[in-house]
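> run fold Bicarbonate transport system permease protein CmpB
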Amino acid sequence: MKLTRHQMQDLALGIIGILLFLIGWEMIGYYKLAGLTWPRFSTVMAYLFDPSRRGLFGRAMASSFSMILGGYVLGFVIGLGAAMLSYLVKPLQPGVDRLASTINAIPPIALAPLFIVLLSRDVTGMAIATINVFFVIYVAATSGLERSRQNHRDLFAVLGASRVKRLIRLDLPAALPSIVSGMKYATPAAFIGAILGEWFGASRGLGLLMVSAMQNFQIPLLWSAVFIASAASLIVFGLMSLLERFVHGRFS
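> ok
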């Protein structure tokens, strides 16, 4: 794939920005400008890639990423399904809109204890991630399903196509750019939800490592767990941006 001049400029600026951020991180830690709680970047990397800690981080990543993936898939399916249902059955749409807004307005920190009681500590993160992803996908899909052109809808009506057939063959393809954009912005929401849920007593995961490190003042461990979560979220967000660019070029 050949990059345009504008894309190469954006890529170069992005790389420069990351390098400046890492250099700033290293300098602040080196000169202790933020005290003992801000370690050097090189110290965090040395701690993170110490062979003796591979098992610890490997188990935490496997647990957290499986919760994130599960919450993402569930949230996507529920959000898209709710959007399609409210689109097909118009009288339902105001109610589903209010329900989605109400659920999203409840702070996850208030929902977590309920999920612990109703489900279990180990899947609370996945449940919160599901709710976060559901709302983003629902909003994106609902707005996207209205994007098909009126003359195309009229053509389907003249041909006698049912509402379901028009949804599958016209409205859903027209909504793909919006849905993929929603999938991109749902990625960090899934990471935040899953890791926040792990703070409430999960038996393993990056969130548990963060809480444990914070309570025991293990600063390199805390920063290592935060770095893993942030880097993974940014990588997936970048991949989703590439998918978004492809879909917008193909279907917009």
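Residues 212 and 218 are 8 Å apart (CA to CA).
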